[in-house]
């Protein structure tokens, strides 16, 4: 009598353990009975019929998924590598379970193809200058396509744009040339302003503007250390300065 009671007690405990499911606050349980959807279970302690019911728990928290570097050929035929990160969450656990086999893998593959497709339609300059705009465009496309899976994409961020070495050197040369051009423009503006100031000063003093310019240059040169200035003086002037015999 004791052994059957013990065996019966053990079986009862096993059945009870198999029928208990705990759903966390950030989860929902999709319940299938003999393969048919019969309802969704809320957080807390839930009971199912062992061997007949199957509960699939779905995480409703925001998922952060890294998209590794993708080979992309831009519209202007520049090969680059771009990686990104996507943020999404499940808003309809039933659709996430019933409408797609593996929603995480599906979102990952869709993000890869969308990233390559969108960036392949724009020039390199736009990719470098309009990251936020392109990221939002990618997010909208993925969010629209995953709506039937019960997925809401909250954000997409393009992180790194890796350029070929020769392209990086070309961009560096272009930036240096632009800096030189701006420096020449600034210098020319300064020269123009200085010429205007000298002309006004010559009008006030009643002297030749060229003389003022020469005096200014001599003043700037004399400010340097260890500089000797030699000014040629006409012989006739020396004769006038010479003491009479």
TrEMBL record:
CDD domains: SPFH_eoslipins_u1. Transmembrane segments: none annotated. One of its GO terms (biological process) is proteolysis. One of its GO terms (molecular function) is peptidase activity. Keywords: Hydrolase, Membrane, Protease, Transmembrane, Transmembrane helix. Pfam families: Band_7 (PF01145). InterPro entries: Band-7_stomatin-like, Band_7, Band_7/SPFH_dom_sf, Stomatin_HflK_fam. Its main location: membrane. It is found in: Membrane. SMART domains: PHB (SM00244). Residues 18-175 form the Band domain. It is a single-pass membrane protein. One of its GO terms (cellular component) is side of membrane. Belongs to the band 7/mec-2 family. This is Membrane protease subunit, stomatin/prohibitin homolog. It comes from Methanopyrus kandleri (strain AV19 / DSM 6324 / JCM 9639 / NBRC 100938).
